[in-house]
Amino acid sequence: MFEFKEYLEKARIRIYPETYISLMFFSALLTLPVTFISIVLVYLYQWIPLIFLVPMPMYVMIGFIVIPMSMSSDRAITLEREMPFAATYVTIMASGGIPPYMSFKRLSEVDLMPAMRKEAEDIVKDVEILGVDQLTALNNAAKKNPLDIFRDFVSGYASTVIIGGDVPHFLETKAQDIFRTRAARVKAAAERLGMLLETFIIIMVLMSLCFYILFSVEAIYSTGLASYSTMLLYTYVFTPMLSFVFIYLAHSMQPKTPITDWRPYKAFALSSLTAIFVLLLLTGFFGIIQTPFDAIKNIVDLPTAVAISLFISAAPPAIVHNKLARKRSSTERGMATFLRDLTETRKTGLSPEKCIENLSKREYGAFSKELRKISSQISWGIPIKRVFMDFLKRTKSWMTQIVVFLLVEAIDVGGGTIAMIESLARFNNMTQEVEREKKMSVRPYIMVPYFAAVMLVSTTIMTLVFTTQTLEVGGTMNIDIDFLTTLFAVSGIVHCYLIGLVAGKITEESVSAGFMHAALLVIVALVASMFAPTLMAGML
After folding, report:
1. What is the pLDDT of residue 182?
2. Which end of the chain is more exposed for a tag (fewer CB within 10 A), N or C?
3. Helix, strand, coil share of the chain (percent; to 5)
């Protein structure tokens, strides 16, 4: 039998291994009738697809084995993003004289790090409810955790305390190692995302080219409608499903934050409704209803109407996302500079409140406005913790929220000593460097979708034009080439729109970042569809 105890503990499935195995066999036993019925139907009626239902008990057993592994992996992935900041928090608290267990106890009440909060709650539960001593509880938490850097950090602290080592120095060194490990993993993840984008482009473009060329040739040499229905099914059903699959794969590979800014998606919902209405106007409601706008469809062809509508659906949310992204990036850079200046100003002997008041006169990008508001509230006598907590509610940057939370905790616990603020500034610079390296690693891949869009649309249209002109020379042309060109141009534009969404998710970790690429790729595809026939005619 497989040893399930370790898997279940790391997956946080609180059930005895013997009970889990019993449930597995019992569930497999319940599916035996499906196996018998499938065998009978295959034997009597030769329903070959039912043969896949024969090993149903095996599927159930495999599911019971895979589920704990998958949950353990998800637990490690969600904890990995928060681990550097949790280590920084423990280190900063230790420099102020707070033992790590008390730091974990405080982390059990922090909503900004939900994954670390669950781990801290388990440690606190073992100590305060089950009566386990603190070091044993930390060791047990390390053994049951699937993330290696968490195990090394927690178990290493317990060992250092037992042997009487230098705990603050160990925590400082280990936190720096965690940041370096995080940087290495971010680089590796960026390379994997680049390979994922290349794979998506290869599948999306080359496979689409093969299918479109096949569809065009079949449509030219035969008059059946099967090819049209198959192409529509491929364009509007299969390719969106394929795009969602790659978005899910990118989401599973990328680091996740507990905060999602929904404003670009709300703008996308409103602009999509507007785009649908514009498409109906530009196409004269597709000829279904007679309206005064029917004359427009004689001026604007269908590919142009579709491109305009898709552009309208993507452009406003792209503007909203870019504005929010620039503000978030400027705030994070300003916060990093503010922490460095705060460290130096604190060395003069001023209190943290006076340091903030003096620094509010300097320029820190988008953070300057918030800093002046913070300084004004502090001068009114409002407690500094309450002031910064109000600021946390106004910002949507998880990185800024984490840094501000660490700063508030450093001031609240240790009075904002120079060592604590200096440690925070150093770790924040490390975080900024990791994010900068990640963006630089994926930046070269952003031009790939644009070349792919031009190749997809132009190659398809040029192949269609070449084939039809060859038939015209032979006198065997008997189909509507304009209809085929319109059909394939619309399909290519829709493809490019989906490519932009997936490219934004892979390169910038959010689908909202793909709205800009989708809008630009739609224009690129439309221009390519217009000039491809002219270019082909000139070459012939």
Report:
1. 75
2. N
3. 85, 0, 15
- Residue from 479, 431, 524 nearest 83 by CA: 431
> Cβ(331)–Cβ(395) under 8 Å?
yes
Measured CA to CA, the distance from residue 59 to residue 75 in angstroms comes to 24
Q: Which two tokens stand for residue 202?
A: 């290869």
**Following CA atoms 444, 446, 448, 452 in sequence, which dihedral angle do they give, to the nearest 10 degrees?**
-170
The helices-and-strands tally (H runs, E runs) of the chain is 22, 0
Cβ atoms 306, 235 nearer than 8 A = no
CATH code for the part of the protein at 329-438: 1.20.81
Query: So what's the pLDDT on residue 228?
Result: 64
Q: pLDDT by residue (tens digit) across 329-364?
A: 888 888 888 888 888 888 887 777 788 888 888 888
User: What is the pTM (predicted TM-score) of this model?
Assistant: 0.77
| Residues 6+ positions from 456 with CB-CB distance below 8 Å | 204, 205, 208, 209, 492, 495, 496, 525
SS3 call for 475: coil
For residue 387, the model assigns a pLDDT of 82
Phi, psi for 344 (deg, rounded to 5): -70, -40
Q: What is the 3-state secondary structure (H, E, C) of 259-302?
A: CCCCHHHHHHHHHHHHHHHHHHHHCCHHHCCCCHHHHHHHCCCH
| Rounded to 5°, angle at Cα 264 from 262 and 269 | 95
Query: What pLDDT, in 10s, does the model give residues 298-318?
Result: 556 788 888 899 999 999 999
